[in-house]
Amino acid sequence: MSTRSEGRSLWWQLIRIGWAAGRSGTSSRVRNVALGCAALAMTLALSAVAAVLATYDGRDARAAARSPQFTESAKGPDARALWSDKFDDVENRQFSVVHIEPLTDDAPLPPGLSRWPAPGEAVLSGALLEAGADEGIAGRYGKAVGSIDESGLATPGERLAYVRPSAGVLDRAAMNPISGYGAAKPAALGDMLAVKPPYMLLVLMLFMLILPVGALAVAAARAGSDARDQRTALLGVLGGGWRVRSALNVGEALLPAACGALLGALLTVPALLTDITLPGVAYELSAADVRGWSWAVVGSAVPAFLLILLVVVLMHPAQHKRGKSTRPRLSSSRLPRWWPYLCPLMLLLAVRGPELAPGGGLRLLVYAVGVLGTVATLPSLLALLCAAAGRAIAATGHKYGRSGALVAGRWTAAWPGTTARVTSGVIIAFVLIGQVQLWQSRNSGPAAEARATQARVGSSVVVVETPEDRARTQAFLRALPANANALWLAIDHNKGTAEIVGSCRGLTELELPCSSRSAALSPGHLDPRVSELAYWHTPMGAGNGLKARVAEELPKDPSSQTLLLVGADGKQLSVPGIKTIANAHLGTSPAVGTIGSSWLSGANLLALQSRWVLFFGAAGVLVIAASITVGNLAEFLRFARRMSALSVLTGRRTIFFSVAAFTLLLPLALAGVVGLGTHVWLATPLTSAADSLSFELSWSMLYAATAGAGVLALVVWVWGSLAAVRQSASWRPKAD
Hints:
With 736 residues, the chain is α+β, with helices and mostly antiparallel strands.
């Protein structure tokens, strides 16, 4: 047999030995399940990254294909249609309304339309028809004659409308001439208005998903590692290098990692076959986009499998020897000397680094790197402090004859990596949950005030922007329901004054004086509807300088004029119904809304974007919970095995509770307190930012999380102590 064949036979034999050890070794079942879950989570996480890239690729391609090609003049030879876009909303969620009008017989259709709608007809996306069914969206812009095909939508769930205005509201001068569709870059239309750069979502996934999956992989690789550390030390004494170690460790982890990766690949298959609505974010993932990247989505199982094996190899390095001695030093939980000292630098980078970055995207990246670095290094720093405290506890126990303190102190000092593993999950979970809450709370101050305004007055007053054409406005007023009283808000921006003008009946509804002479209003005695109107729609804000009078006609030259529709007897008006009437008489998508409603669209957009934080954060919390479970279960078994002989040496079993109090209870309780302080500190760049967005800490959530960490510490303490007590009853000396 050749030397090469002997080498192959040796490596195959080493892998088989590892395979056998994985089925019969200590804590093998716990570790195999943990490795399988880690491989499954890693596969799904990498598939999610591939799905994000696939979505951006397909969405940009379709959005670019529907982007109009503008020409200089409607009378030019290239002009073949007129095009304009405006906004509307359903349930305060904004979407695009595109108005189209052909100029030639061969005018191109927008992608997704099968024919030209007739004047007064509209084609809406399926998602818009479904979302606006209760608001009568099908008749808002005229007669709905079909739905937009997915080829013309950026995403399957996009809300979009193509409208061909009727002759009565068609304004050719307000529309842009186009020659066709298709551009190198997608236009800001529809969902593309709210799309963030891909790196922002990838950074979010890195922090909320990839980091927890990495923590689970490390916890799974190190589960029940004491026996493998002894094996590693023995191999080192026998002259086995890193290749031998790697072969054994790979053979041990081969089956669970392969099963987890294969299961993860199978779970991605449905996304290739049908559109899937992601829970919590109401986003419909396009199967066509995913199929275009199927090689990456399903193929993520391969790099996930290899990454798990790599983590297993890296988590079992060679045991260091003292000097030239060949005696193994079984200290598998040693810490890198430089790693804990990075924690203060990472914390400083997260807290102070963003304010030095020039742009918003770079600022977010610096902050994310700082937070990730802090979370990654903080458990090691905490373990280093616990190791120092362990030496002090051991010295105190030795001095006063406290066997529990002596054993616990020496355990903590000798195994700082154990402390790091036990506490890392709690710290990561604390910061992760805190960041999810923090980003969920982001909002703008005016948007919060607008929500409060809507809660107070609702749609009892509807604000309508009217065109200069008085004939259209009169037709609109005649079509209004009988319970809508019309008033005008005339503003003179040069003088900074505002006046509510209209019939006595309308003024009375707002508890305003009926006088033909302009009467100044007292800010402290205004109807709540008038106060809110003054705050949001007049230069004075609080109502100072606001006047009212009875008049059939408007002032001749106000700087601006706004139509106010007041519900009779303070009742709510139907905003969707008024929008339908306005579209039929005033023009193309006139501005109609409640007081301050223009701010709610932006607020709801932020809320929709924040759902992604909650979506990935919830997945990350589940992974971290699995990591904590795996790590603590492995430590229970380790603790029980190593402590079981103490009952023989001490003659009592109560020592397990005192030892566990120092080795399990104290580090976990300390991790909860440290996690709370760290999150509050890491939140300062967001909570103190001087921009339009506000982030608020939820102290009730933080207190609940701290209490949960305390309960976890107590459960781990009792569970570990009882496990050691049970195992000590059946302990027998072994040559291990």
